[in-house]
Amino acid sequence: MGIMIKKALYVALSASLVIISVFAFSACSILSDAAELQEYDMSGDSVKTVNAVVGEREVTGVETGVTNGVINKQYTYESNSVFDDLMAYTQYLRENGWNVTQDYDLNVTPGNAQLAKESADTDKILVLSIAYEDSKYAIKITKGDGTLTSN
Predict the structure, then answer these.
(1) Phi, psi of 2 (to 5 degrees)
(2) What pTM was computed for the model?
(3) Under a CB-based contact definition with an 8 Å cutoff, are residues 50 and 77 in contact?
(4) E-strand spans in the chain?
(5) How far, in Å, CA of 132 to CA of 143, rounded?
(6) What is the separation, in whole angstroms, between the first and last Cα of the chain?
(7) Is 24 exposed, middle or buried (0-12, 13-18, 19+ CB in 10 A)?
(8) Quick check: 60 and 139 in contact, CB under 8 A?
(9) What is the pLDDT of residues 74-133, one digit of tens each?
């Protein structure tokens, strides 16, 4: 009976290791694909990625979801040049129709920035939020109901 339990335990452990390996490989593939991504696809809208503007950066996290009809995607990047990356990226966004909706100072870390733009879809907006530290930053894009008004 002891041999049967050991064999069953060995089979269960082996199966668990295979499943963990598959998930780990899948996660590596997702992060690798995200590092090469040139546009964030926001269901009818596309937004140039930070990689498209400043070159390939290491992606350490990807989160996507839909909550109450609001689409959101978040990409976390590691970089030795956070200030330069975000200066170039936010400048690119501002030059391409994005409006600053939260003042920011890239010299102050950690920090946050937020920009928004009308969606291609009527009565929808895109909001791009950036949270940054010394060696990493997260870019979160949401698409939901709303309009932008100028002051």
Answers:
(1) -60, -35
(2) 0.77
(3) yes
(4) 39-41, 46-48, 58-67, 70-78, 99-102, 111-118, 124-132, 136-145
(5) 21
(6) 78
(7) exposed
(8) no
(9) 999 999 999 999 999 999 999 999 999 999 999 999 999 999 999 999 999 999 999 999
Edge-first strand order for the sheet with 58-67 is 58-67, 70-78, 136-145, 124-132, 111-118, 99-102
Residue 112 identity (one-letter amino acid): N
What is the 3-state composition of the chain as percent helix, strand, coil, each rounded to the nearest 5? 35, 35, 25
Q: Using the 8-state DSSP alphabet, how is residue 133 labeled?
A: -
| The two structure tokens encoding residue 76 | 């976390």
- Residue that wins the pLDDT comparison between 60 and 36: 60
Residue 145 neighbours by CB under 8 Å, 6+ apart: 69, 70, 123, 124, 125
Contact assessment for residue 55 and residue 43, using Cβ atoms and an 8 Å cutoff: no
Residue indicated by tokens 């600053």: 100
Q: Which two tokens stand for residue 149?
A: 């008004």
Tell me which amino acid residue 40 is: Y
Structure tokens at 132: 């940054």
State the DSSP code for 123: T
C-alpha 119/C-alpha 110 separation (Å) is 29
Six-digit token pair at 40?
């964030």
Rounded distance between C-alpha atoms, residue 69 and residue 90, angstroms: 27
